[in-house]
Amino acid sequence: MSNLKVALVHDYLKEYGGAERVLEALHDVYPQAPVYTSFVDWGGLGPHAERLKKWNIKTSWMNDIYPVKKLHSPLRFLAPWVWKSFDFKGFDVVISSSGWFMCKGITVPKITTHICYLHHPPRHLYGYATAVEWKKYAIVRAYAAVVNHFLRIYDYESSQKVNYFIVNSKETQRRCEKFYRRESTVIYPPVVLAESVKGKAGSREYYLCVARLARAKHIDLAIKACVKLNKPLKIVGKGRDEGFLKSLVTSQMSHIEFLGEVSDEELEKVYSGAKALIFPSQDEEFGIVSVEAQSRGVPVIGLRSGGIPETLIDGKTGILFDDLTVESLVSAINKLERTKINPQDCIRNAKKFSKERFENEIKDFISKHKK
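^ that's the sequence the OP posted. Answer follows.
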């Protein structure tokens, strides 16, 4: 295994979320592996950029053309040419960390094993909620109708060239079978678990959201529910919906606080004072943040959607709610307040998703499936 020549491929390095945590864990397993990606936006990576700058990162031609790089979303039809431009001769194994920009579309030599760690099939191609509500614009709908048709064909055909799929949840496994007709192996993402739990139960005073501030995350529901119940809420993260979300908070709502993007050390402090994490994300394929919170003894109030029911035990490590409404979330918060959650149950549940477990499962999978 130590003599394997491995390359990693990632859609792009623009912001730091769950997919980037997986990529970083893969890089920890294979620290000498170069990382191929369409482009890098160091500013968008925030405090994580310094770690990633130490890697051997190889960008595509897109990185050098600023207008194309800036408009990568509407120009997503260029993705096939991005991934076609890389040469993977000489590698034994190539692991693509693939999401909506479809980096699994790379071409590798026949003697090379291509393993795709699939975060999700592109949401915009298959009717799932996306960060931008693009369907409300007629001209965008017309444009997408043409582009997405060809991208769905490309997405399916490129998936047939992958040797093996690894997926991040049973939910994604179902989508992989449905859209690609491919079997896959579930290896849950790596979660950096807390070394120790800080903060006593009595000092946990506020609710918490940790997420990209995007439409599909539905942070607006958390804000409205906490305003209605007059509960303190801290929001960690940034994103395109930040302005909209802040517009929901008036000067009289001092109990709703936006913390922006914070360092890992600062996040530990925030977790230590949280009564529960509110996770109203829709169709989330896994939800690393849910497990991170539980590993710190923090229960989760999560939408019964996507992979979230795989990460928490309803009534024991958190509360699941069924509808994307303020009323449903308010009911779940009230239910949590009446439920005695043992922080140790949360911690024990989170240990099933440890980084060490991920690394061992990845190494074991590759040793069994490499050509």
